[in-house]
Amino acid sequence: MPIIVPDIETDRLLLRPLSVADAPEIVRLVNDFDVARYTSTIPHPYDMQMALDFIAAPEADPQAASRFIDDPDGAIVLGIVVKEGDVLVGCVGLQKTPEGPELGYWVGREHWRRGYASEAAGRLVRLAFENFALPELVASAVTINDASHKVLEKIGFTICGTGEIHSRAQNCHLPVIHRRLKRNDWLRKIGRAA
To answer: What's the pTM?
Structure first.
């Protein structure tokens, strides 16, 4: 039986599938080197065809969540939309990796320091643990990306190692800090016994 994902909302945000209408805003937000430079998958420069391909990818499909548990290559990508004004500010997602389901996100520079990444990532963690009952999540951030480390710490991720990623934007390897969040630890943090 497929898992039905309810509307994914927070106080300020709506996390929703992307549409072709989002492509121009995705290009505008991501075609900023400061947004792309610490990611592994976002190239720079970023053009309209790249955005359309991203939106058409299986992980951006509105039904991706229903396939996530059973698909060994499962992934979910959702737009982060500020409800007031219906403004797309970034993306958040889960992708299965050899290390486990990985949380990822990006937010356009003009929307930094407003708590959107923490709010969206925290809500996706809740989806992963409550709806999918995943035992744990992983995430990584480039060592000098202090803002991303703060987001991950705020939502409960702890350091579990170091490594490297290949940055498509910088075309080089960058050092990262790996983090992990176990479902039982998250349940304790929110006040529910594991």
So the answer is: 0.92
**pLDDT tens across 24-70, in order?**
999 999 999 999 999 999 999 999 999 999 988 877 777 777 777 78
Assigned domain for 146 exists: no
> Number of folded domains in the chain?
1
Q: What sign does the CA torsion over 95, 2, 19, 8 have? A: negative
Q: Which domain holds residue 101?
A: 8-135
Angle, in degrees to the nearest 10, between helices 48-56 and 23-30: 120
Q: What is the CATH number of the domain that holds 49?
A: 3.40.630.30
pLDDT at 103 (0 to 100): 98
Q: Do you find a cis peptide bond into 98, omega within 30 degrees of 0?
A: no
Work out the pLDDT band at 162, boundaries 50, 70, 90.
very high
- In a domain, residue 145? The reply is no
Q: What is the DSSP letter of 134?
A: -
Label residues 151-180 b or e (16+ Cβ within 10 Å = b): bbeebbbeeeeeeebebbbbeeebebbbbb
* Packing angle of the helix pair 146-154, 116-126 (nearest 10 deg): 40
**Direct distance between the N- and C-terminal alpha carbons of the chain, in angstroms, rounded to an integer:** 25
The two counts, helices (H) then strands (E), for the chain are 7, 8
Is residue 180 one of the residues assigned to a domain? no
Distance CA 40, CA 81 (A): 23
- pLDDT above 70 for 185: yes
Is residue 154 in a domain?
A: no
